[in-house]
Amino acid sequence: MSRCVEAAAVAATVPGAGMGSAGLRPPMVPRQASFFPPPVPNPFVQQTRMGAAKRIQIFLLGMILLPVRAILVAIILLLAWPFAAVSTACCPEKMTHPVTGWRRTIAQRILTFLGHAMFLSMGFTVTVKGRIASPVEAPIFVVAPHSTFFDGIACVVTGLPSIVSRLENVQVPLIGRLLRAVQPVLVSRVDPDSRKNTINEIIRRATSGGEWPQILVFPEGTCTNRSCLITFKPGAFIPGVPVQPVLLRYPNKLDTVTWTWQGYTFLQLFVLTCCQPFTKVEVEFMPVQAPNDEEKRDPVLFASRVRNLMAEALGIPVTDHTYEDCRLMISAGQLTLPMEAGLVEFTKISRKLKLDWDGVRKHLSEYAAIASSSKGGRIGIEEFAEYLKLPVSDVLRQLFALFDRNHDGSIDFREYVIGLAVLCNPANTEEIIQVAFKLFDVDEDGYISEDEFSTILQASLGVPDLDVSGLFKEIAQGDSVSYEEFKNFALKHPEYAKIFTTYLDLQTSHVFSLPEEGQAVPVVASNKVSPESHEESASDKKDD
């Protein structure tokens, strides 16, 4: 288990800590506005509450509506299959040329009509606002918020444009043939170049001048509860062509459509929706958005602007959550934490703190080891002290405050990740490692003994009986630590650089010159380690 928090504990203290006001503290880590918690903590959860009366109503209506609607949906799908089969006859799964002529007419007109009939049979009443752009005006539709499998109604309303789908989906009986009829952009999981090939195919179709059908993309990449717009993936914006934003709303008193990572299953939502007398849907087509020169060079900038416009029209905020947050939610559940504990706004955290998914996932395992015994999956001061094997003191409370960014008395996973990155990842250079080794090598014999190691850490914390043998054994191969062992450990665990840099800075700010010969030695708090002189601060000595 990583001991980065233990390293931060040392970094948050100074010589004389634990001695009341004599021990100065370093300034608190600045709270950057960019790291403030998101306006919507968890957009991937939906809890639809129904009273007893509503449940009885659903049961009674369902006895009639559910079987009738299920039969109608099955009949419409069976009717659609032969038309889809004719329109895609003799065409490969991955199309290299667009379907044209009468076959394209069949796919677009008849299947669109049957699509409207299917959603009508399920009780959907659709209200369309705005004007649908032509393929020349906007080769790409971007639809948000994406909250349910019923969002496929946007495909029907827009005239069955091409969509991005997994290659495995076209191999599913019945559904696969219907999917092929819309000439999808197929993504292969086994192809290592799949992402690049998909982007190239989107660019080729979007710049074909109307030869290919328009492409419909859900840029969020996963379903949310419509409380915000999460990060837009740049795929739809990379071609640098105009896009038409499409808004989806479900203005119903009872939400039976939202399909999130925490909530009703696919089958439950389908049954609940079919048991409603009707379900309202609003599809709004916004004005076409064309990228400027800067946005053509930077698709992320284009995606951000379009997302902000759509969020403003919907009256909801934006957050930097993404699909990777969903993966972390699943990992949190596997670690016996509440699933929402894994949410960190991955896009923002990874960009600003230079962390990849594997790094954040590793931190989640460390966090779970600390928070597993706490309620709600959050670390309190008691769990913090227990993990560090330190008493609850002013020193520990100050360190805790460095992590507790919103000052609510607990540390969630997001605060933990930010705290580690801010406290534990300074430059881990060869020069710092050399100076640090000299700091611990008190007798300058080229090796660090456990006594020397303990002396520095105990003096820093102001806890004379602190047991550091566990950490020492992680570094040492024997009874002492050589420079190569110290260096290898430091390079593998860059978080410990914070001990070195902070402790040296603090020593510099607490320099005490040695007395003249015969002069009494001044008392220096409880820390027995101090530099020999103002100039010689690289190597600390024991003043026996």
TrEMBL record:
Name one process (GO BP) from the record: glycerophospholipid metabolic process
Q: Which SUPFAM superfamilies is this protein grouped with?
A: EF-hand (SSF47473), Glycerol-3-phosphate (1)-acyltransferase (SSF69593)
Reaction equation(s) it catalyzes: a 1-acyl-sn-glycero-3-phosphate + an acyl-CoA = a 1,2-diacyl-sn-glycero-3-phosphate + CoA; 1-hexadecanoyl-sn-glycero-3-phosphocholine + acetyl-CoA = 1-hexadecanoyl-2-acetyl-sn-glycero-3-phosphocholine + CoA; heptadecanoyl-CoA + 1-(9Z-octadecenoyl)-sn-glycero-3-phosphate = 1-(9Z)-octadecenoyl-2-heptadecanoyl-sn-glycero-3-phosphate + CoA; 1-(9Z-octadecenoyl)-sn-glycero-3-phosphate + tetradecanoyl-CoA = 1-(9Z)-octadecenoyl-2-tetradecanoyl-sn-glycero-3-phosphate + CoA
Kindly state which keywords UniProt assigns to this record, in alphabetical order.
Answer: Acyltransferase, Calcium, Cell membrane, Endoplasmic reticulum, Golgi apparatus, Lipid biosynthesis, Lipid droplet, Lipid metabolism, Membrane, Metal-binding, Phospholipid biosynthesis, Phospholipid metabolism, Repeat, Signal-anchor, Transferase, Transmembrane, Transmembrane helix
| Enzyme Commission designation | 2.3.1.23, 2.3.1.25, 2.3.1.51, 2.3.1.67
The cellular location(s) given in this protein's UniProt record come to: Cell membrane; Endoplasmic reticulum membrane; Golgi apparatus membrane; Lipid droplet
Give the EF-hand domain ranges.
391-426, 428-463
Q: Report the domain of life of the source organism.
A: Eukaryota
Q: In which pathway does it act?
A: Lipid metabolism; phospholipid metabolism; Phospholipid metabolism
Where do transmembrane segments lie in this chain?
58-84
Q: Where is the composition biased (Basic and acidic residues)?
A: 531-544
Residues covered by region (Disordered): 523-544
Family membership noted in the UniProt record: Belongs to the 1-acyl-sn-glycerol-3-phosphate acyltransferase family.
Q: What is this protein called?
A: Lysophosphatidylcholine acyltransferase 2
